[in-house]
């Protein structure tokens, strides 16, 4: 993703939008655009939360309700300024979102959406039954927002507040998506093959980023609710119920979930269509009823079937054809390098694995395995399929908890710690099943590996204060890509690469974290002969540079050529350890591999 793919049209659209109330356009246009701006604010939150993060929420209308009622109560009952109402609303929303998020974001699958429905319903009925908030009649007579002598009383005036907020939010979300925290957020989406394993292995707390997205989305909805309340000059519970919660999600899906432009496209399309349908459908079907709901249902099914990414990607592809897009390729390689850690001297104790064990129910996948790695070593871990190599790897890197045993990395005990802490201690890894973010460029994927060497958070990113550090991270990513020979594919989408280069990108990403020990899980699996040779060259070069490697590999020849020592596993047990010639000469190893081959032969028959 690039920060602003179409800077000129975006600037032109902004000027036009903000200038509109000065032109002699009908009031009706302004009213419509006010609603579209208000909806877009909420939907922008959903773009981040649902489109990018993969966390579905039906409850955003409730957060808008908190914003509306906070200011309603403060201004009408206590007689305070709308701006205090905004601050109070934001504070209450942030606290609520943190509390609800902490409770529900650990839930997986469908529990989160269900929880958001519950919470939206609960808040609706709570508001509707509170005497102080006027029950279902709500609160009347909210004052207009004023700033100095300017009053935003008329629709044409509050338009500027609404669209100012919406455009600023769009700017903030756009910047956020293209930043250190944004890369982690984009890696989380389970619907697009993401998850928390890889970001955690890069050192990021995924729960924290889910919370950040949840809070930002809630705050955007809150601002929308605040603006709505002061536009209407009254509040009642109906716009904050579950019906609107669903409609916001509908807008996000139709517009193009996961894109900033989609939030605006979706809000506009649904609002305008709804108005038209409300006029036409009763004429067709007769009588009066909410027929538009039926049409929306059908449209939703059609969109999900034929344009699952929504309408915006179609629009933006069209724009890309006629408009000059910004060149996103600039990498400033003169940027000062990121700080690097001090690595242990060659020969120093690096990793000490002592009798680690993993049981999955009755199956002992890793049975009291021990081995050591010294700085500068390349150690291979081999064994037939199902021997427990990947599990051993996951135990050492903290992806799986140990049943028992000890792991010491650079003199620190790391068993029992999560993969995020272990990454911080200096270990980085790749995955047997490649875990790249397919819709990010190769460069961005590698920059994700710089996570622990950089600091900018979501607020800094939204304010654009992370630029210097971003330049450093991109330059570092480019250096690592050059190191593995993929610099000329830096701007391809990672998902478009073949498996071989994808595995190399994973290695570059791991290298970008400046590890003291690099763990590679079956880097040669599924590669063609030429790709294997290229990979072997890269690994030899890394070895020459003094990097320490633990290499899991099924392919014996590949391991023999590269490693100093080899640990052999079979059925979870330690079989032997030795130099490549020793292992090659071992009858036990040969029997293990032949046994495995026999099995595959049988399987074929
Ligand atoms: P390798 O990487 O050597 O091929 P693995 O470590 O992937 O082997 O698997 C070792 C054994 O543990 C296999 O029998 C596998 O089926 C089992 N296993 C691996 N992961 C799990 C899990 N999450 N739950 C249950 N069994 C598992
Ligand atoms: Mg494996």
Automatic annotation (TrEMBL):
SMART domains: AAA. Keywords: ATP-binding, Cell membrane, Membrane, Nucleotide-binding, Transmembrane, Transmembrane helix, Transport. Residues 351-596 form the ABC transporter domain. The keyword NADP does not apply. The keyword Transport applies. It is a multi-pass membrane protein. It comes from the Bacteria. It is found in: Cell membrane. GO terms for molecular function: ATP binding. It holds the Pfam family BPD_transp_2. InterPro entries: AAA+_ATPase (IPR003593), ABC_AA/LPS_Transport (IPR051120), ABC_transp_permease (IPR001851), ABC_transporter-like_ATP-bd (IPR003439), BCA_ABC_TP_C (IPR032823), LivM-like (IPR043428), P-loop_NTPase (IPR027417). The chain crosses the membrane at residues 6-23, 35-63, 83-103, 110-127, 158-177, 211-229, 249-270, 282-307. This is ATP-binding cassette domain-containing protein. The lineage of its organism: Bacteria, Pseudomonadati, Pseudomonadota, Betaproteobacteria, Burkholderiales.
